[in-house]
Write a structure and sequence with these properties.
Low-confidence stretches: none
Number of helices: 0
Helix content: under 10%
Largest sheet: 7 strands, mixed
Order of helices and strands: EEEEEEEEEEE
Oligomer: single chain
Amino acid sequence: QVQVVESGGGLVQPGGSLRLSCQASGKIFAIADMGWYRQAPGKQRELVADVIVEGPTNYADSVKGRFTISRDNVKKMVWLQMDSLKPEDTAVYYCKVGVRMSVYRTDDYWGQGTQVTVSS
């Protein structure tokens, strides 16, 4: 089994910063990708940023220039540095890890989510 655990959420004022962390553990032979998604009340879950191992990073337009994703393949960790936070960034943030099971198959594992609230 694979476990994914996020941490680092909280309450922050507009313009502030937070750093989210995600740790994957368990039976992982290889990671294909790691990323962050978020879901605000009444809205669908959306991609915030992801990184393909040995590949490019992708950001939602709404966070470009403010958020930075980074990862450590050996430690099986991914971080999301969030700067210049806005109230509209308020959401539950989820970490997703794509575990490569074979050449043709990748299984996605999700964390339980961590709440980020941006408010004065």
